[in-house]
Every structure is written in structure tokens, then in C-alpha cells.
């Protein structure tokens, strides 16, 4: 994983870094507030040796340094602690004294430092004074020979005792700085880890790698899409509508030598927006002057009729079982060259019905009656209906939702199509997050006061054709060809 990938993961999961930083800084502040102030009193001893007992300066130096190490242990001994307790009257035990005392030596010197840490400034000073006095007495007593003469070493107090004027702990600035540093490091690590274990599709590159097919479009997330899913009216000038038009252009140029006239729109899972995209794609194609037929082949959960506001009681199912003729149930939608074939009644055997010869014959007839047939099918991983329909189409368009579909699910959906030799035209990343700069650029460029309805139909049709390089056979100003009865 390179640095750019790590930065992208951190940017994607910035909230993890922020929450972690807030928690660590808050913890550091809480510890700082709840920790009692501690003061340190210190005293410095100097170890010397009389001339007698030492043959030369070098040996005397080594001897004193060894003595200093021994005296450091003696400062924290039980005997000295008990002597301090007996004479100080501070109400502390020998264990309390030993826990408060710390010693240190300067390498290469004969200086010995003792410090006492306590939450009470006065008590720290009194313990240090008693400790230094008793330590000098104890060393003198130990070093005195049996005949009453002074020993080879002597202890002198050369510094202190003195106590710090301000607490040595807690240190708010240090604690908060440490909290910020730990929070940033931990937050970045968690963000990167979250990104590494996240199997959901987050960008177009991941979708292309998972499916092995080109990305034909990414439809931006639109807050108003739930209330107004179709790209008509005010939504016709939105960034979502423009993305659908880009998809229309890319779809028509996937293969100019073998254009797909019957397109199955499917998804890996339910609720990824395939039905909405099917309707909007059909509307966009009809706006370009093409004769478009939208078929609702999701016989288990049909939604096309609800989205377009047409009667869905009779439709594809009734045509396939021979109850009605297709020309009697196809409905024109709006003032565009868009025909809709709803799903009809719910059958007990959707897969068998969609894979029947009647369905193959119907698609053949629809192909001759319309320029483009868009078929909304069932999700691929839920049931086999989508694969059954896609096999009979010229190609399939796979819709996935950013942040919901996993890479494994998208790959499984693509494999289910490839396993039956379905031509996967490409993929669409739905509800994608668009960079703020891109959204601003689109809003700055588009003319809000101009809507498709205000452009004359003949000029709009010609403009769309010239823009996309589309040259369908026949005159688009003529009435739509009547479907077979």
C-alpha cells in the first residue's frame, strides 16, 4: 500500500481520526485534572575519602564510585526508612518512605542525589531533611571502625534540601501534546485499517477491478432523488440528470459496429437503484429522439409502473401467457417517444416465464418496433430471473451502489453474466460521492433558467443527434410504429 492510498483512506474515514483525537485529548485532560499535584524535594551528597586507606588517586576514584552505588541502595533501605519514621513524626510508614524516595548518580562523579516525591509540599521537605540527617549519621556509624576511627569515606551534604516551588506533575501542556500525538497516530492507523478491511465498493476503480468491465457512468447522490426519482421537471437540470445523459452517450458508443438495441439493466442486490436508472435512461434516450420501449421484467418486485405513474395491472406477464396482445398493454409515457410495458400480474413461475419461447418471440417483435428496448430485470444474486433475461438481450448493464455493494458481490454478479456468455456492456456506480469541486464546476456552467421543455422539440432532437453521433434509420418526426397485436 503506497502513501497515496493511505492518504485516500484517511480522507475517506476522517471521522475516525477526529473521534480518536477527541477521545485521546479528552482522556489526557481528564487524567490531568484528576491527578493530584506532586512536589519533589531533593538533596545532593558528596562522597569523599581521607588520604589514609587509598594508595593512589586512580584506585581511590574507583573505590569512591563503588561506594556511591552502595550508598544509593542504602538510601532506600529498610533500616534508613525505619530511622526516618522513628524521628520524623510524619505519620508515614517505612514502606511509605521507601516509595517516595528515589536516588540517582552522575556517571564518572562521586555525587549522589536523593529526591522525595509527595503530594504535600511541606511533608516532602520534612522527609528530605530527616532522610539526609539520618543518612549521614548511618553512613558515619557504618564507616566507623571498631577502634573508633573514621572509615575510608565521608558523606557531606553539598546541595539542599530544597523543594520545588511548583508541582512537577501533572504537566498539562505535555499531557495534552501527548494526547494529540497519540490520537493522530492511532486515528490514522485505525482509518487505514478500516479502509483495508472494508470490502464495499468505494470508487469507480474498485468497481472496474471487481467486474472486469468498463465504467460507463457514475450517478451522483442526490438528496432530492427519493422524492423525485425521475429526471424531469426541475430535476432535468440536476447533476444527476447530466450523469444519466453521459451514460446514454457512453452506452451508445460502447461498440459502434455492434450497437446494443436490447439492453438489460440489472444489479447484484436489491435496492441499488436499477429501476430508477432504467426509467431515467429510457427518458434520456427518448429525449434524444429515439423510439424507446421500457419493459418491466422484474416480475417479483415491479416498480416501473409506480415510478412512471402508469397502470401496471396488465402487462408483460399477461402477454407471455397469451391473455392479451402486446399492442394493447403498451402505454405511451408523457409527450416523449417513450413506450412502457409494465410487468402485469405477479406469476407463480417468473423464471420459467421469462425464459420461455414466448419471451424470446416478444423481444424479437419489440426489437423491430422500437429503436432501443430497455429491460428492468431482477437482481442477479437474489434470483436467476436477471440472467434469464440478459441472455436474450444484446447486452447487460450492471448497476452497483457505492458504499453498499461489496467487491465480492459485484464480482459474483459479473461472473453470473459471463458464465452464460452475456455481453456485459459496462457498469454504473450509483449514488456516488462527487467531489465538491466537480459539483461546483457543473453548477457554475449550467444555465439554470433553461430547461429541456423550453427548447423546441425539433431543435432538441437534432442537437442530441449531432452531439452523440446517432443516425437511426427512419424519420423521427413520424408516428411511432404500431406494435404487433
From TrEMBL:
Its EC number is 2.7.10.2. Its main location: membrane. Signal peptide: none annotated. Residues 261-401 form the AAA domain. It comes from the Bacteria. Keywords: ATP-binding, Cell inner membrane, Cell membrane, Kinase, Membrane, Nucleotide-binding, Transferase, Transmembrane, Transmembrane helix, Tyrosine-protein kinase. It is found in: Cell inner membrane. It is a multi-pass membrane protein. Residues 3-87 form the Polysaccharide chain length determinant N-terminal domain. Residues 461-479 have a biased composition (Basic and acidic residues). It catalyses: L-tyrosyl-[protein] + ATP = O-phospho-L-tyrosyl-[protein] + ADP + H(+). NCBIfam families: eps_fam. This is non-specific protein-tyrosine kinase. It comes from Micromonospora wenchangensis.
